[in-house]
Design brief:
The protein has 541 residues and is of the alpha+beta class. The chain is 36% helix and 30% strand. The longest helix has 132 residues. The protein is elongated and about 180 Å long. The relative contact order is 0.07.
């Protein structure tokens, strides 16, 4: 099967079998050659066997004749034995000689029979080989049929390959055209982005010019004109209260949030028990519960009260913002859209709008009247607190988990600028004059005192033993002279923003103090204890 083809080429005969259609004939020819090659060595043996067989027949005839003569001679011998006087004749001598020859012939017959047995065994092997040849011929016939089927399949595959090759060529051409279109589209997109960036740059320059001009005009009109338009009661100089006048079991679970009304007539508290409680605070230290706002399905994290003391807004862990009407304690609106906990809510634009900050790293602006989401801003990090720097919403500041303060304009989706602080920001509080920010940083356990006009921190307030939690909230006194913050060990720390020194440390709480808020009159403040209570602090026992 490994011989070369008949035309003398170096291509093997198997090539002719697959593509020339002579596979069966070649295989039969090879089998005949092998048969001849295996039988030839035994051809003389078969001839000799035939001669020996004929000789054997002759000897068998002679043996029968000799047996007959032998029998006759034996009878003669018996006669001689019985008559010992008779002498051996010539025939007797011949008989003895023939008997010897008979013995030799018997031996030769035995040898011949053994040879015949060997020949028969070889003949059986030859017959077995013949059977194998027949089986191989049948197998060759089957393989020839299978070869025909495979040739048909090969032809089909060649046709399919040509079709796929043509389809691939068409797809390559279409792909080239598509890439050209994509490149052209990308170029147009880049041009549009460049135009947009140029437009935004011009708008920012115009906005900055407008803001600077507005600031210049405000300063030229009156020093008091820069005050926050949401100014509360005309309070006198704030004091640092040092005595606990009242302790109140406010909630059935942990407390997280506290907010005073703008007139100081009431304050609201919220916590893990899913409720907002309203408290009358007109005549501190006397406190009286005046209502409970229910409807939230998770803990209350942040509270704010509108400037006319008509509505209370709260952000909760169920990703919803709810507005209650104080009169009647009914839920007025529910704002859904956030995907995670809401840590901060604030009214602005004369309480016609809301801004909320969430753990889902977004800020959302809401219209209170229509209950619609006006804008969603991606802030890139979890928002822990908010402050509104202008009533129109053109300046909102947010504090984030990534240690950054971000300043926003509600008309834009990107921050106007950022400020990196020393730790995760847990709270942001705006002074009533609107010129300063206080930011609590958990990792550094410090308060950053920031001048908004200089756009930088002018002091860092720290103290030995001050430890801040995830929900620690700091606050300014109404006149902006003091900043107070609670610690996880139950202490309350107060700093003077004018001397930049720590004024006092008080310890009455037995557990962490997440929130401290001054009354708008500046003569007292309220502190929340994580263990369900709030304390009212005044200057007199």
């Amino acid at each position: 099967m490994g011989e070369n083809s008949k035309d003398g080429s170096n291509q093997p005969a198997t090539w002719e079998i697959v593509y020339g259609g002579t596979w069966s004939n070649v295989f039969q020819e090879k089998l005949r050659e092998r048969n001849t090659r295996e039988i030839e060595p035994y051809r003389d043996f078969f001839n000799n066997f035939a001669v020996l067989y004929g000789t054997l027949d002759q000897y068998c005839g002679k043996i029968k004749k000799l047996d007959y003569e032998n029998l006759k001679r034996q009878e003669d011998i018996k006669t001689i034995i019985n008559d010992p006087g008779q002498s051996l004749t010539e025939n007797d001598k011949n008989f003895l000689s023939l008997q010897q020859e008979n013995i030799q012939l018997l031996r030769q017959n035995e040898t011949t029979q053994k040879e015949m047995l060997r020949v028969q065994m070889r003949l059986r092997e030859v017959a077995k080989k013949d059977m194998q040849i027949v089986e191989l011929e049948e197998r060759c016939h089957r393989l020839d049929q299978e070869n025909g089927i495979l040739k048909d399949e090969l032809t089909t595959l060649h046709l399919m390959y040509k079709k796929l090759e043509e389809d691939n060529r068409k797809l390559g051409f279409e792909n080239t055209q598509m890439l050209e279109k994509i490149l052209l589209h990308k170029k147009e997109e880049v041009d549009m982005v460049n135009m947009h960036n140029e437009t935004m740059k011009k708008l920012k320059e115009h906005h900055m010019f407008y803001e600077l001009e507005s600031a210049r005009r405000e300063e030229s009109i009156s020093p008091e004109a820069s005050s926050n338009s949401r100014c509360r009661l005309n309070s006198g100089p704030a004091i640092i209260p040092s005595h606990v006048s009242e302790k109140m079991d406010a909630h059935s679970s942990e407390l997280y949030s506290l907010a005073f009304s703008y007139q100081g007539t009431m304050f609201a508290t919220g916590g893990a028990d899913k409720a907002v409680h309203l408290w009358k605070s007109t005549n501190l230290p006397g406190v009286q519960k005046i209502g409970t706002l229910s409807g939230s399905t998770a803990g209350i994290m942040s509270i704010d009260i509108d400037e006319r003391d008509q509505y209370v807004v709260a952000g909760s862990n169920d990703s919803a913002v709810r507005v209650w009407q104080v009169a009647g304690s009914q839920v007025r609106s529910t704002f859904n859209g956030h995907d995670n906990k809401i840590y901060a809510v604030k009214f602005y634009n004369h309480s016609q709008r809301l801004v909320s900050g969430s753990h889902d790293r977004t800020l959302r602006l809401w219209d209170v009247k229509s209950s619609k989401n006006i804008r969603t801003i991606f802030a890139r990090s979890s928002c822990h607190d908010l402050a509104v720097l202008s009533e129109t919403g053109t300046s909102i500041v947010s504090g984030h988990f990534d240690k950054r303060l971000r300043f926003w304009d509600e008309r834009q989706d990107t921050s106007s600028h950022e400020m990196l602080l020393e730790g995760r920001i847990t709270s942001v509080d705006l002074s009533f004059c609107g010129k300063f920010l206080a930011c609590s940083c958990k990792d550094a356990s410090a308060i950053k005192f920031i001048d908004l006009k200089l756009n930088q921190a002018i002091a860092t307030f720290t103290a030995e033993g001050l430890r801040m939690g995830e929900h620690t909230r700091c606050s300014f006194s109404p006149d902006g002279q003091y900043i107070a913050v609670g610690s996880t060990d139950g202490n309350i720390f107060v700093w003077n923003t004018r001397t930049l020194k720590r004024e006092e440390t008080t310890r009455q709480h037995t557990s962490a103090v997440p929130v401290v808020k001054w009354h708008p009159l500046g003569q007292s403040f309220v502190s929340l204890e994580k263990n369900k209570k709030f304390f009212v602090w005044t200057d007199t026992p």
